[in-house]
Amino acid sequence: MDDDSAILAFAALSQGTRLETFRLLVRHEPSGLPQGEIALQLGIPQNTMSTHLAILARAGLVMSQRQSRSVIYRADLAGLRTLLVYLLKDCCGRNADLCAPLIAELTCC
């Protein structure tokens, strides 16, 4: 991942509805949710939700798949992993011992 891609991902997540959408989709892995259900659960108009999902998709954080007449959205966990690795790659000056508490906290998830 390069700086521009990371900035795009952070910009996508820096808006409240998009962050909430991403977290909702992570909770519904691996099955995902239809766009209408996401909008309903978050109380967001369908056309507004479509815009938010498009921004998250461009940032590499969500993916979609057509199933019959519905479009199912899922969190792109590979994209999330890439973003997290980008953040932690040079963690604490490459001193793994300093990052151990963070890694331990993530491991329990």
TrEMBL record:
GO terms for molecular function: DNA binding; DNA-binding transcription factor activity. Keywords: DNA-binding, Transcription, Transcription regulation. Coiled coil: none annotated. SUPFAM superfamilies: Winged helix' DNA-binding domain. CDD domains: HTH_ARSR. Pfam families: HTH_20. The keyword Ribosomal protein does not apply. SMART domains: HTH_ARSR. It comes from the Bacteria. Residues 1-95 form the HTH arsR-type domain. NCBIfam families: HTH_metalloreg. This is DNA-binding transcriptional ArsR family regulator. It comes from Sphingobium boeckii.
